[in-house]
Amino acid sequence: MSATDRSATDRAATDPSATDRSAAGRSSADRSVAARAYQPALRPGVLIGPPLLRGPRTVHLIKHPVSGAAFEVGPKEHFVISRLDGTRNLDDVVSEYAARFRRRLPEEQWTRLLGLLGTRGLLAGSPDPEPPEPPPARTGTFWKGSRRTVTDAHRTTGRLHRLLRPLLRPWAQLPLTAAVLVMMVAVFADPAALLDGTLDLLTRPLVLIPFAVFLWFSVCLHELAHGIAARHYGGVVTEIGLRWRFPAMMMYCTVDNYLFLPGLRAKLVVAAAGAYVNLVLLLPFTLWWALLDPSDPNRPPLTGMLFVGIAQALSNLVPLPPLDGYRILGHALGTANLALETRTYLALRRRGREAVAAYPRRARRLYTSYALTAAALVLLAAAGSCTTVVLLLL
């Protein structure tokens, strides 16, 4: 043994802490090597949503396929998570991360992100969590609540989708869409006849009551249309039931992974499916209306029925919460909670420009524009309602 080796051995013998530090250093180095060589993969079925503007930030939603738990991550975390396919290690991700963001991904951030994903059970090999307990069949009181009416909503909408699948193809949808457009143009071509027909409808209870029942069933089919359209694009329907606020009662249909449907088109179609079905259901009345002689006494109330039905369907496309048009606008703009974030932005804006300095230019323009649009729509709806009432009274 050389003098140097004996000196090192003597130091280790006289200073046990030096041995501990050496062992700790080797252990830390081993862990670093293992972390760099690890090729993690997301567990099958993890859902990752598109970018959404939420306030001043851009976020992505990530959802567990079993527990249903969801959380938000930023663009950089999403970039890393989207590359966890079991074939990349830290060095691979670091090089791609540097090319995308022009900065190096710290090893500590890599380790911390993997720890978060592992804790939430989102990595392959993680133990399965307990599935969520089904919601109670009924909630609320006599005055306000909901009741689930279908035991397996996903299977029920799946059967309806298989039955109606031929009608969802372009050869059927294109003529139906054209017929709906022609119907609206023909009905609204004579505004005076619309007012006269609506007044005539309101004065005929024997016609108005059956038509009101038809509209109620039309709303029920409106909700089922959302579920069937979601199934067409791979969505999961979790609940179908009745929701009431005394004395009104309406059907509802809940799509569990609606925000994770592939592509913008799928989300827009699902959101607009209900109003579209309401319009399609009016086509038989339109055919009857078109075949009647203009002097026929049945034509005015039928005109009123078409006007009310079309107005009811189109009102769902107004971009105000909680209507379908609000969801359509949110998807088209790539935003989350547009109305709530607009209110938050306006409250901060009153404090001065410095309070909203963190908002990017696109967010400032978008929230300001939506605030003006929403105010204009509310005023327009109020003015239109008052004008209609006055004209009917006159």
Description:
The chain has 394 residues and is an alpha+beta fold. Helix content is 60%, strand content 10%. It contains 15 helices and 8 strands. Strands 1, 2, 3 and 4 form a 4-stranded antiparallel sheet that branches. A 4-stranded antiparallel sheet has the order 5-6-7-8. A hairpin with a 3-residue loop joins strand 5 and strand 6. Helix 6 crosses helix 9, helix 8 crosses helix 12 and helix 10 runs antiparallel to helix 13. The longest helix is centred in the last third of the chain and has 33 residues. The chain is elongated. The N terminus is likely disordered.
Find the count of extended strands (DSSP E, 2+ residues). 8
Q: Approximately how much beta-strand content do the residues carry? A: 5-15%
Average pLDDT, rounded to a whole number, is 88
Q: How far apart are the first and last residues' alpha carbons, in Å?
A: 115 Å
**Helicity, in percent?**
55-70%
* Rounded Rg: 30 Å
Question: Helix count, per DSSP?
Answer: 15
SSE ordering: HHEEEEHHHEEHHHHEEHHHHHH
- What does the overall shape look like? elongated
Low-confidence regions: 1-9
Structural class: alpha+beta
Outline the biggest β-sheet: 4 strands, antiparallel
What's the topology here?
Layout: H1 3-14, H2 16-37, E1 47-48, E2 52-54, E3 57-63, E4 70-73, H3 75-81, H4 90-101, H5 107-119, E5 138-140, E6 144-148, H6 153-164, H7 170-188, H8 191-202, H9 205-232, E7 237-245, E8 248-255, H10 263-280, H11 283-291, H12 299-315, H13 324-333, H14 338-349, H15 361-393
Antiparallel strand pairs: 1-3, 2-3, 3-4, 5-6, 6-7, 7-8
Helix pairs in contact: 1-2, 6-9, 8-12, 9-10, 10-12, 10-13, 14-15
